[in-house]
Amino acid sequence: MTIAGRGGRVIHLNQRKEIIMQRLSLLVLTTLWAAAALADDGSILLHGQQAEVIGTTLRYEPQPHKQTLGCWTNSADAAEWTFTAARSGEYAVEVLQGCGRGQGGSMMQLTVDADRPGRQSLAFVVEETGHFQAFKPRSVGRVTLAVGAHSLHIKPKEIAKKACCDIRQVRLVPVVAAAAPLPVKRPNIIFVFSDDHAEHAISAYGSKVNTTPHLDRLAAGGARFTNSFVTNSICTPSRATLLTGQYSHKNGVPVFNRFDGSRDTVAKHLQQAGYHTGMIGKWHLGSDPTGFDRWIVLPGQGSYWNPSFLVPGGKLSIEGHCTDITGDLGIEFIKTRPADQPFFLMLHQKAPHRNWDPDERNKARFKDAVIPESETLWDDYATRPAALPENQQTITRDLTNRDLKREPPAELEGKARNQWLGQKPEQVEVDGKTLTGDDLVRWKYQRFMQDYLACVQGVDDNVGKLLDYLDTAGLADETIVIYSSDNGWYLGDLGLYDKRFMYEPGLRVPLIVRGPGITPGSTPAGFVANIDLAPTFLEMAGLPVPDSMQGKSLVPLLRGESPAGWRQAVYYRYYHDPGHHNTRAHYGVRTASHKLIHYWKKDAWELFDLTADPTEQHNLLFDPAEAGSPEVATTFAALKAQIARLQREYGDDGRYADPADWPKGGSGGDMAGKKPLGEKTVVEAIALLGT
Predict the structure, then answer these.
(1) Which of these ranges, 40-44, 522-526, 644-648, 667-671, has the smallest mean pLDDT?
(2) Are 521 and 487 in contact (CB under 8 A)?
(3) Residues 76, 10: Cα–Cα separation, whole Å
(4) What is the mean pLDDT of residues 184-209?
(5) Which stretches within 514-653 are classed as H helix?
(6) Does 472 score more than 50 pLDDT?
(7) How far is C-alpha 347 from the chain's CA centre?
(8) Which residue from 95, 386, 474, 504 lies 20 to 30 Å from 274 (Cα-Cα)?
(9) Which residues are bridge partners to 111 per DSSP?
(10) In Å, how far are 94, 133, 390 from 46, measured between CA atoms?
(11) What are the strands, taking DSSP E only, across 486-543?
(12) Please, which residues have CB within 8 angstroms of residue 542's CB and are 6 or more apart in sequence?
């Protein structure tokens, strides 16, 4: 028997029965899925059928072979689920996603509790599965849930092709506490931050010029990140990024300007969550620290010897060398902490910042050494004319008598003496010989490096002293210790000292993390940036990461995981033009294989193949014939597009490009309004701060 179907199509009765049964089955499935399913292991299953669909093209497609959220072609369309968590804790988030061949690459944003202050966001890049209904489970990260009602929202951040993906299901899986590498008891967190410490001046990173046994000890006991970068290679902006987890254009500190202490910071989150918070050493943000229970900081750059310190309402001085004093203050802070709270300590060293004035025990350490020269010390900048030739941070031209520790003539005093110390010598007398030309450059390099490395040694000594104290006090097993620097540094590389430029020595920074559950001697290779540190501290403490933070927690990398959608490139922007050292403003992107830099005021581009040219000597865009080759032109276009995408992702709209728009206020710190408290010992200084 047959019946007429729609459009005159003939359907056999048996076929009709089969269609009815399919629809009845689908109705049963729909009824079963009307609420979030809770598995025996506590997993929460959010099916596409349950989602509230928001937008114009996105829809739930109920066909048995689909049962998916499909037609996701509009970036404004979103899907939202509501569900109840029966247990509190951390959940791994898994998305069952499909995507047709050639349609991958879209960026999706997943947000839990978008309408609450503690909302949490994850992002993932859509992977091709061969077909939109060929579903593949994707692990996209972790969220922390309290018992009770929650919402989960997914929408595209960027659609790469015509449609982004189909999603059949989202699953939230409780993370078994025993498998988590970080302890259930909230750990203490110590962040040791040096100033201008080059990654390649640490022996754990393969230094050819010095050894750092205590930093090596830290690395051997934990994780040493091999691709750690900054987003603006200069002191004050880097410190604002550390606190906020934001790029300079978001946190309001693009140059040496004052930080707004009312902003949201990682210290405030930790303090509100019950951590005893401390800030000791170099601050360099102008305003008084906020979010810290106890703080004692240097005014501006501070002094190497007998330094002054700012404390709440006052100022004091401590006799001795700043590196040792800062280390001792940190240990005294830990000794006097409240016993019933975990602590978070930011321990910031001034060293090895210019003018490189080491402590007495290390002062002569490198005086008789012949320090190997960088292979690019004699760089002629042949293919990079946009900024390097006119910069003023060269070993050849720009080191002063003060930098080189030359003694002024005895008859000079006051202003005349200071003027002489600020001069850049074109010849010097050494052991009865007059040095000029290449001989003078070599001598300058040795003098600079001897003092710089001696300052590094002082920092390393104090890392060792801290680690020894944690062992003796029985705190090592419950304390996470992180070491990094505010920016990189040129050790004669490209003929330079200082930082600022986006070339590798200035862009790279050390990042070493030791703590409970971190595999000793591990070397995570994922691309990380200083915007990631604040989110990392929060996740280490078991706290959610606010959406305002632009970085990602590094805890998954410390667990040895390879999170889906992890960044494949780092975006960089330097603003200070005009400014110190005549360094031209620029932005760029660094990928695993290439780097593209744009000096925007000159509209000059530099492109480097980092695999073939790791020292960045050959700008592929310098020679028009080479720049026009298909391979170079394609790479150039792709990296320009990547810069544009990252600027959209991070909300870099070009603010602060004009110096007239730079925020007001300096980063030096106000000494004038502080009550003089006299000279103190380390113990007395910490006692002044209370507990």
Answers:
(1) 40-44
(2) no
(3) 41
(4) 96
(5) 533-540, 555-558, 624-627, 630-650
(6) yes
(7) 17
(8) 474
(9) 121, 153
(10) 10, 17, 59
(11) 511-514, 528-529
(12) 144, 182, 186
* Residue 498, token pair as written in the block: 């200082």
pLDDT at 671: 74
Is pLDDT at 253 greater than 80 in this prediction? Answer: yes
**Average pLDDT of the residues of the chain:** 92
Q: Note whether 235 and 390 are within 8 A (CB).
A: no
Q: What CA–CA distances, in Å, run from 599 to 231, 271, 576?
A: 16, 41, 12
Note the helical H segments in 362-513. 414-422, 437-472, 504-507
Find all residues with CB under 8 Å of 140, minimum gap 6, and list them: 93, 94, 95, 110, 122, 123, 124, 563, 564, 565
- Written as one string, the DSSP assignment of 324-354 is HHHHHHHHHHHHTS-TTS-EEEEEE--TT-T
Is the pLDDT assigned to residue 605 strictly greater than 80? Answer: yes
- The conformation of residue 112, written as its DSSP 8-state character, comes to E
Backbone angles phi, psi at 144, to 5 degrees: -110, 125
**Stretch (H or E) spanning 42:** none
Read off the tokens for 565.
């959608």
Helix (H, G, I), strand (E, B) or coil at 48: helix
Single-letter code of the amino acid located at 156:
P
H or E stretch covering 320:
none
CA–CA separation, 578 and 253 (whole Å): 16
Segment 120-148 shows an average pLDDT of 86
At residue 62 the predicted structure's pLDDT band, cuts being 50, 70 and 90, is confident
Lowest mean pLDDT among 58-62, 129-133, 139-143, 559-563: 129-133
**H or E stretch at 12:** strand 10-12
Could you give the count of Cα atoms lying within 13 Å of 315 in the half-sphere of its Cβ? 14
Q: Does residue 654 contact residue 246 with C-beta atoms inside 8 Å?
A: no
d(CA 23, CA 17): 10
Amino acid letter, residue 327? G
User: E-assigned strands of 272-340?
Assistant: 276-282, 294-298, 308-311, 314-317
Note whether 197 and 459 are within 8 A (CB): yes
Give the number of other CB atoms < 10 A from CB of residue 188: 24
Specify the pLDDT at position 20: 39
Q: Is the pLDDT of residue 31 over 60?
A: no
Q: What's the token pair of residue 91?
A: 């959940």
Residue among 126, 136, 130 at smallest CA distance from 158: 126
pLDDT mean over 435-452: 99
Instruction: Please report which confidence band the pLDDT of residue 37 belongs to, taking 50, 70 and 90 as the band edges.
Output: low
The encoded tokens of residue 95 equal 């998305």
Q: What strands, in cross-sheet order, belong to the sheet with 188-194?
A: 223-224, 511-514, 479-485, 188-194, 343-348, 276-282, 294-298, 308-311, 314-317, 675-679
251 membership: H or E segment, kind and range: helix 248-251
d(C-alpha 230, C-alpha 242), whole Å:
10
